[in-house]
Amino acid sequence: MISSRNRLILIGFVALAYLSPALRYWREKDTLAGRKFVETPSTNRFDVVPDFKTEIITADPSVASMHVASLCEMPDGKLCATWYGGSHEGARDVCIYGSTRGPAEGKSWSIPQVLVSRASAAQELQRPIKKIGNAMVFADPAGKLRLIYVTVSIGGWSTSSLNLKTSRDGGQTWLPSRRLILSPFFNLSELVKNKACALSDGSWAVPIYHECLAKFPEILWINESPAGELAWSKTRLFGGRSALQPALVPLDSQNAIALCRDCSSMKKIQLTRSADAGQNWSHPQSVALPNPDSGLDALRLSDGRILLAFNDSSTGRENLRLALSADGGMTWSRCATLEAELGSEFSYPYLIQGRNGRIHLVYTWKRKAIKHAAFNVEWLNVQPKETLTPLGGPPPGALSAALDPEFKGERLADRDHSL
């Protein structure tokens, strides 16, 4: 039984522990009030000829399982992709890999290099590392690459931490990892999946999520001073137990939506809105598209529409599909089936649009490889559209037709070409 005196001492220690993070939070809150999202330049210019190509980035037989790809474009047009691979998810031999591809047509992906191993993470972070998980890479206008990745020292993913590595030479070399302290006590259960969004002051909004006891989406705010000092903080989009892995989509300098994976019984993509550059968010609502408790991604195209990549099912990851919204996420139109095969997995899509307007998508292909699809806006425009009402769903038989092994129509993923 704790005495009154010891209880007061304990409360005092807790208050002191939270004082510094609380002060930092309120200072960051004041700073956030002046930030804006960097808007995607709008354009109605399209290529004349529709173009769609796919390729396998890597299919190394020595790495049995690959998952959770990310992608960014550097200022010179070069692409950088990351993913993790090993004998299976959560295995001690899992490493984070990276590969780059030149901007010129016909260039191939470089031989994958290990960016982080369990041993290197333990050495750099000066703490025991049990396993490595999701990673996400992004580039600033100066070409500096940042890699945010997940480590676990004890337990499962719900006890994970986030870490940051930086490359100043386009990914050729990397500085040692830094652990991101996002809470004053255990600093547990912070994970990352989707891409960062640039802010007007040079900082970044990184969608992250929490999944210990409760599950909810968050934003990690990262800022670098002119002297090179990094500062970070986090805010929560909303609470609950059913939404995670947000895909953050700025619509303009102030307005944004976040589309979330759903782990509830609804099995619908969850959507929330912000009108103040991500400081505050609405209560989430489900949209017309299903979600089988799996990752998704979305982005605002240069023509103003929102492109979504998702598993079009409430039960599994056997297909990968695209959808478009022309009204800020109010209504959606399915527009292309990229993959569909019974018993297989096509998951965790990651979307970007390059400076030349070309759209790039990377995703897990059967857990055996990472696949890259590249296409232009004109290709999207010629795809048949199926418009849904806000509370609608897939028409009867539409999904079963896409997954039917006897299906006679053309699947877009069958048009594999070398990039």
Explain the overall architecture.
11% of the residues lie in helices and 40% in strands. Strands 10, 11, 12, 13 and 14 form a five-stranded antiparallel beta sheet that branches. The chain has a five-stranded antiparallel beta sheet with strand order 19-20-21-22-26, with no helix packed on it. A hairpin with a 5-residue loop joins β16 and β17. The chain starts with a helix and ends in a 16-residue tail after the last helix. The C terminus is likely disordered.
Overview features:
419 residues, mainly beta, 5-stranded antiparallel β-sheet, 4 helices
SSE topology sketch:
Layout: H1 4-32, E1 52-58, E2 65-73, E3 79-86, E4 95-101, E5 113-116, H2 118-125, E6 131-139, E7 145-152, E8 160-167, E9 178-179, E10 191-192, E11 197-198, E12 204-210, E13 216-224, E14 230-236, E15 243-250, E16 256-262, E17 268-274, E18 285-290, E19 297-300, E20 306-310, E21 319-325, E22 332-340, E23 346-353, E24 359-365, E25 369-375, H3 377-381, E26 386-388, H4 398-403
Antiparallel strand pairs: 1-25, 2-3, 3-4, 4-5, 6-7, 7-8, 8-9, 10-12, 11-12, 12-13, 13-14, 15-16, 16-17, 17-18, 19-20, 20-21, 21-22, 22-26, 23-24, 24-25
Biggest β-sheet: count, sense, barrel?
A: 5 strands, antiparallel
Report the end-to-end length measured between terminal Cα atoms. 68 Å
- Residue windows where pLDDT falls under 50 for at least 5 positions: 391-419
Structural class: mainly beta
Mean pLDDT: 86
Shape: globular
Strand content: 35-45%
Helix and strand run: HEEEEEHEEEEEEEEEEEEEEEEEEEEHEH
What is the CA-atom radius of gyration, in angstroms? Answer: 21 Å
Counted beta strands: 26
